[in-house]
Amino acid sequence: MLSRTADNLYWVSRYLERADFLARLIEASSRIAALPKTYASAQDEWQSVLIASGADETFYEHFPEPDEASVIAYLAFDARNPSSIRNCIEFARTNARAVRTALTVEMWEGINSAWLELKKFEAVQKELGRIDREELIKFLEYVKQTSSLYDGSGYRTMLRNDAYYFSRLGVYVERADNTARVLDVKYHVLLPEQEAVGGSVDYFQWTAILRSVSALTAYHWVYRESIKPWNVADLLILRQEMPRSLLSCCDNIVRFLDAIGNQYGRQGPAQRHARNMKRRLESTSIKDIFQSGLHEFVDGFVTDNNRLGTEIAEQYLIG
Fold it and tell me: Which contacts qualify for 264-269: CB closer than 8 Å, 24 or more apart?
């Protein structure tokens, strides 16, 4: 496979996974911001969303304060934000068009339909002169459905070859980054300093985090008790049966990198680095993580994951 084709497939998956994450993050944060002030600080909530999305630095170039309207506009529809949902969908479609023959009909139609839906929403928004809440909810739901459709169509219809492996690799590299970032933000930004761990604010915010990564039901299945920070961290870091956990993502990254290596007849730095990331997760416990510092652990993971992305690009995607 040409490196350009592999690069396009890899980034289609990353962009759609990112759009899905942003849609879930906006939904979950809207729930918290709508709570009485006794339970949440709306200002802190929207600041935390910017940090989790990685858009906190560029946001202030265009807006003075992170309120609900400006953050949603910037993360969902602003063309000036390279990682907005709007741009993720457009970039995914551009990459998909370049490798149209490598995608199945169902995968292409899912992406193209999302782009058409985006244009329709933008037209309504322009006509109204504002973001309509009801239309926004429908659009965010459509974004999540698009990601699920693309993901499911790829799993059900793609030939198991290098095109499939690069497509899946993009999903898990992006998913690992998203899960790590949202965990780190919760620990350092969402909980007010005067609020005790386990208090009402803590409960609602950890619940929002679980919702943002579709893990609330899974949490109750695994732990069968009220929400506790260390259990949430355990679920999202070390539980391999949880599809969005860091360990599950690393396991899949190793699997698909090995499949690519076997198909091309050689291994490289990306495979070795991915195996090291997985081994470190397997050899630690949630107690060790909290003792050494959740922020330090997650920050180290994000750095490792970024390095892995660079190694994958250098090894396979730069022709």
Answer: 264/162, 268/311, 268/315, 269/311, 269/314, 269/315
- This prediction's pTM: 0.90
Q: What confidence tens digit (pLDDT) does each residue in 222-263 have?
A: 998 888 888 999 999 999 999 999 999 999 999 999 999 998
pLDDT in tens, 12-25: 999 999 999 999 98
Distance CA 257, CA 261 (A): 6
Find out whether 10 and 171 touch, Cβ atoms under 8 Å: no
User: Could you give the angle at the alpha carbon of 84 between the alpha carbons of 16 and 98, nearest 5°?
Assistant: 45
